[in-house]
Amino acid sequence: MGDGTTVPQATIEPMGVLHVQLGDMVEVGGGPKGPRVIVDVVSIDLQSDTIKASLATNDAADWLTVADEGKIGCLDVRFTLKTDDGAFIYVEYQGRGDMATGLIATAPTFQTGSDKYSWLNGIQAIAAGNVNLETGRLVYNLYKVNVTV
Known about the structure:
By secondary structure, the protein is mainly β. It has a single domain, classed as Porin. The protein has no helices and ten strands. Strands 1, 2, 3, 4, 5, 6, 7, 8, 9 and 10 form a ten-stranded antiparallel sheet that branches.
C-alpha cells in the first residue's frame, strides 16, 4: 500500500472500440432526479486485441436522466457481453453526455467469473463516445486507466 504522501498519476491505454445500436426510447417524465428517458440497447459489438464480444441478453438499457434544462444527459447503463469464446462479462457505467453535441464521457467497470478474462475485474476504464440520436448509433473508444506513483 502507498504511504499516503505520494501523489499518484494516471495514464490511459486503449482497450478497444465499442459499437452500440440504440433502440426505443421511453420518456418517463420528470421526477426527483430530473426527467428520465429509458433507452433500449439493441446491439453491442466490442472489438479489441484481447476481447471480441457482443450483447448477450436483451435486457441492456440506459436509464438516462436529463439535467440542466435538457443540456446534460446523466447516463446509467448496464449490459452483459458474451465473448466469442463463450465467457460472460457484465458491464456497468455512469457518465455524462452533452445533449447538443452527442459527445459522451463514461467510466465502465466489469465483472466476470471467467478465468481468462478475470483481469477485467480489477480495471477501471473510461470511454469517450459519440451518439447520433437520429440513427441511434453510438461508438465509444474504450481505455484502461493505469494508476502509478
